Amino acid sequence: MGFLNTFASTLAAAAFVSAQHDAGAKLDKPTLHDNLDYLKQGIIDNLPETNFNYELQAAGTIPDDCNKVATGQVYNTVNYNPADFDIFNVHYDDCGDPWVFCHHKQSPITIDSMARQFGKLPVQMRQWIRHVVDVPSDGGWAFEFDGTVTFLDPKDDMMPVIVHETGHSLDLSGAYADKPMSSSDRWWDNYNQDSNVPDTYASTNAIEDVAQNTVVAVFNENYPGGFGAIEPDYEKISHQYYTLISEAIDAGQGNNLFKPGQSAQCTHRMAPTDPVPVGGSKKRSMRERRGAAPVVGLSKNVTEIVTKRDGAKKRSDCSLRW
């Protein structure tokens, strides 16, 4: 009977921990601000650009994950013709392997703007992104799907959004020792020591709280004087964003994922998804017919990041809007 009582107590404790760690449950702490717009300019000004160039792939194929995004397989409300995308291989000076961008021809921003902004991410954050997708839309929205980030109605000054979506991949794809961070004991222990969350969107659930605290952490690590230089109540969320900073240093093996220039070159990468044929055809320009070949796999110089996100877990269910 003693064993049964102990076993029952263990199960009860496990159930309690599980309930405490429901990463999808709404959070009930008060917010510091309505949003994090007040951090935007500081992030833009203090993350340096990375030199880049790009080449247009030959028309006729699109990476599989971009195709899934475009054809409503990720969100059924997001539907575009895959033939309306230009596919670019974007090369940055700090990584020998290009990132494959899926840029809609009618996107409100240029491929230059999208590539420039993405390149401001420190490379050890950037390497946790598989593809970048940008499309026109009536309203601004962003989401992450197994390392692919999509921006609907993107802007030329959306660095906090890019950091936020990358934060989802860091959390859910396994960048940190405690993974997923948003459902780990360490995260919840530190969350419980704070009185607030950063903003209204962070209160959606722990997954969004981690992503918004990633924005705060990146600001803290790059803005002169840190987050406390502009936020008098910084201590009300300090356990949350300092936990991410600590994990970011551990994940970088002494380097800090959130600070640029600490790694000269990428060391790991999410591989691009295989190209799939694009249905339908339009008259193609000579440049399109002679474009670059699709990127398949990674070079031997980087280690592939293999995620273990299956089914619904591939989607972060982010609905960050502007």
Describe the structure.
The chain has one domain (26-321). 32% of the residues lie in helices and 16% in strands. It has ten helices and 13 strands. It has a seven-stranded mixed sheet with strand order 2-4-5-6-8-7-13, sandwiched between helices. Strands 1-9 form a two-stranded parallel sheet. The chain is globular. The chain starts with a helix and ends with a strand.
Helix percentage range: 25-40%
Count of extended strands: 13
What coarse outline follows from CA principal-axis ratios? globular
Largest sheet: 7 strands, mixed
Q: In terms of per-residue confidence, which ranges show pLDDT below 50 for 5 or more consecutive residues?
A: 3-19
Count of the domains: 1
Mean pLDDT: 91
**Strand arrangement across the biggest beta sheet:** 2-4-5-6-8-7-13
Question: How many distinct helices?
Answer: 10
Structural class by sheet pairing and helices: alpha/beta
Radius of gyration: 20 Å
Distance between the termini: 58 Å
Organism: Paraphaeosphaeria sporulosa
Region (Disordered): 272-293
Signal peptide: 1-19
Keywords: Signal
Question: How do the helices and strands line up, and which of them pair or pack?
Answer:
Blueprint: H1 2-20, E1 31-33, H2 40-46, E2 52-56, E3 61-63, H3 64-70, E4 85-92, E5 99-104, H4 111-118, H5 123-126, E6 131-135, E7 141-145, E8 148-152, H6 159-173, H7 185-191, E9 197-199, H8 206-222, H9 238-251, E10 268-269, E11 275-277, H10 286-289, E12 303-304, E13 320-321
Parallel strand pairs: 1-9, 5-6, 6-8, 10-12
Antiparallel strand pairs: 2-4, 3-11, 4-5, 7-8, 7-13
